[in-house]
Amino acid sequence: LQVPHVPSQPLASNENRRLTNKHSKKALKASLTLGILLGMFFVAWLPFFVTNVAQAVCGCVPAGFFDVLTWLGYCNSTMNPIIYPLFMRDFKRAMGKFLPCCRRPAEPRPSAITLSMRNSHSGPRAPTSLKNVL
């Protein structure tokens, strides 16, 4: 007896698998970015908080050491604008639109009037109806 051969995966299943794989990669990259940001936060601020508690309990922490740990925490805040563009393409694109050093030559600089009209929701609008909104 011969058993008819049934394709192991239909075409729709391959498409779903590809989309799932794409979303998995994005989720993994987002998790990696978040892990790096949180890891740097803990590395920078945990010594400060531990020392702060020790200072409250025993008063044995030199002022200079406490200042160094405070500035280590402040340096963490300067690292965030560096980390976000390295790991997040959307953030890089958004910043590239507004920073002159990152703008591509073909992109026009948005004028203050355009930005103001966009932010104030004034100016010409497309007609909307309840049917279009729903």
Automatic annotation (TrEMBL):
Domain G-protein coupled receptors family 1 profile: 1-84
Organism superkingdom: Eukaryota
Compartments where found: Cell membrane
Annotated spans, Disordered: 114-134
Alphabetical GO biological process terms: adenylate cyclase-activating adrenergic receptor signaling pathway; positive regulation of MAPK cascade
Listed GO MF terms: G protein-coupled receptor activity
Keywords: Cell membrane, G-protein coupled receptor, Membrane, Receptor, Transducer, Transmembrane, Transmembrane helix
GO cellular component labels: plasma membrane
Record's bilayer topology term: Multi-pass membrane protein
Main location (coarse class): membrane
Protein's UniProt name: 5HT6R protein
Taxonomic lineage of the native organism: Eukaryota, Metazoa, Chordata, Craniata, Vertebrata
